[in-house]
Amino acid sequence: MFHVPTSLLDAILAEDAPCGDLTTRALGFGGQGARISFTARMPQVVACSEVAAALFRHVGGHVCFSAPSGQWMPAGEQILQVEGSADALFLAWKQAQTLMEWAGGLASDTHDIVQAARAVRPDVVVACTRKAPPGMRGLAIRSIMAGGAVVHRAGLSETVLVFPEHRAFLPEDGREAVKHLKQSLPERKIVVEVTSVEEAMVFLETGADILQLEKFSLQDVKKLRTFLNGLAPNQPVPLLAAAGAVGPDNAADYVRAGASILVTSHPYFAKPRDIQVLIRPLSSKCDH
After folding, report:
1. Which positions are tagged coiled coil (predicted)?
2. Where, residue-wise, is CATH 3.20.20.70 in the chain?
3. Distance (Å, whole) CA 194 – CA 199
4. Which end of the chain, C or N, has fewer beta carbons within 10 A?
């Protein structure tokens, strides 16, 4: 379970209400008891509900119910219900709603890709890239993991991925450098991005653990897989990671072609999932 840092909650509130909620304060009903309910308007995978719940607790609300991140939620089902003073609930309302709608879009799109891929091969891995907007990566990681994917690269500091752009600065197109990485970073998987079958053949000799196939056609993925299947039993075989333009519509095709890993940024462009919000004066206890 991810910890929700107080600094994140403070930042979310400070962005929207650095001096509180002027409208609610001016209307004068902020001290009244209230209840806020969030309900799915469309089917979706719940994501970042724990952050939304923590946000309400942070302003003094009492969480009556919170569906866990990763749960498939049909339309009309409740995701979150909170009670507290009206000023507290109005303060966190829109930030919590917008966060869960955005996160639900990421998680739902990720879920669709994972389901499509695993219908062909149950052990295939869907890995989402670090293409979240700056400052949003932590929330994006929560969301894609709620959808069933893993993190491709959380950042530059812990993974080794040699791009063609790196190799432009190295002799022999980086082949010797990649071999050296296997020795100098023995506890790390060495990933090399290639853009053609010919490049992939070259880097087979370097001992790379994973070949990331950038925008390969299905035919080229299949061609490379067929070649690897014919290697001698004692020869190391890298994993094939299909990357670039992988989404729900073609995920299964890339798995059939021979990819063991699907690397995708598709969820980051997903449409948010609508959530209906109802706020009313408090007249009874939590009813979920």
Report:
1. none
2. 118-268
3. 6
4. N
> 254 φ, ψ to 5°?
-70, -35
Cβ atoms within 10 Å of 19's Cβ, excluding its own: 7
Q: Give one DSSP letter per residue of 78-111, joined into a string.
A: EEEEEEEEHHHHHHHHHHHHHHHHHHHHHHHHHH
Residue 143: which region, alpha, beta or left (left: phi > 0; alpha: psi -120 to 50)?
alpha
CB neighbour burial string for 2-16, b if at least 16 within 10 angstroms, e if fewer? eebeeebbeebbeee
Query: Which has the minimum average pLDDT: 33-47, 52-66, 154-168?
Result: 154-168
Superfamily of the domain at 6-113+271-281: Quinolinate phosphoribosyl transferase, N-terminal domain (3.90.1170.20)
So what's the pLDDT on residue 1?
63
> Which homologous superfamily is 118-268 in?
Aldolase class I (3.20.20.70)
C-alpha closest to that of 254 among 266, 241, 267 = 241
Q: Distance from first CA to last CA of the chain, Å, rounded?
A: 24
pLDDT at 235 (0 to 100): 84
Q: Closest Cα to residue 262, out of 147, 164, 142?
A: 147
The set of residues, in sequence order, having a beta carbon less than 8 Å from that of 182 and lying 6+ positions away, is 190, 206, 207
Residue 173 CB neighbour total at 10 angstroms: 14
Within the chain, all domains assigned CATH 3.90.1170.20 are found at: 6-113+271-281
What are the tokens at 35?
């209840």
